[in-house]
Amino acid sequence: MKTNLKSCVKTLFCIALAFFTFSTCYSTVIYEPYLSTQEVTIRIEKEITPKDLTDFKNALKQLDESKKTLHMNSVVLESHGGSEDAAVEIGKLIRARKLNTFLATDAECASACVEILISGIQRYAFGDVRVHRATFINDYYKDERIAKFSFALITCVMVIYLSSQS
Questions:
Q1: Number of neighbouring beta carbons within 10 Å of residue 153
Q2: Fewest Cβ atoms nearer than 10 Å: which of 71, 73, 126, 151?
Q3: pTM of this structure
Q4: All domains of the chain, ordered by start, with CATH?
């Protein structure tokens, strides 16, 4: 009986740990009131995923429908990166809307998050900004020629994107 109880407790602990780990690692686009004013904030936190592009569009739609203003006309960032494609598309929306980007002193914006940060008309970067070179997961490109071509292509795409962000 005690063995079954121990096994059950271990299983429940593992499920709780997995849920906590899984639920906290993905990005969240948060739309919320700012203090007690007519302003709201839109925050992008944690790992950036393709779902965040949809959530960000929904947050912008909600902002338009509420007739409220965005605090400091800024999207607030705190992310260690994630999906490069989603970040670039979110960045394009920020630039098209002429929004600013904001990184607090105790926050981090790394990897793909930087593509969002640089898209702001005004960029308030008080926290840690971390960039790195392009990487390929799990040695995806075994052929060196294909890897070099892919890296060159990614570099060209990023140069075009960065140029469009002034």
A1: 11
A2: 126
A3: 0.71
A4: 26-132 (3.90.226.10)
Integer Rg of the chain from CA: 20
Per-residue pLDDT at 162: 66
How many other CB atoms sit within 10 Å of the CB of residue 101?
A: 26
Distances from the Cα of 108 to the Cαs of 32, 76, 90, 102, in angstroms? Answer: 21, 11, 18, 11
**DSSP helix/strand/coil, 154:** helix
pLDDT confidence tier of residue 122, bands split at 50, 70 and 90: very high
The encoded tokens of residue 38 equal: 């007519």
3-state helix, strand, coil in the chain (%, to 5): 50, 25, 25
Helix or strand (DSSP H, E) at 39: strand 39-48
For residue 34, the model assigns a pLDDT of: 85
Distances (CA, A) of 98 to 53, 123, 143, 153: 17, 11, 42, 28
Identity (one letter) of the amino acid at 139?
Answer: D
**Phi first, then psi: what are they for 129, rounded to 5°?**
-110, 125
Largest CA distance in the chain: 68
Nearby residues of 142 by Cβ (< 8 Å), 6 or more positions away: none
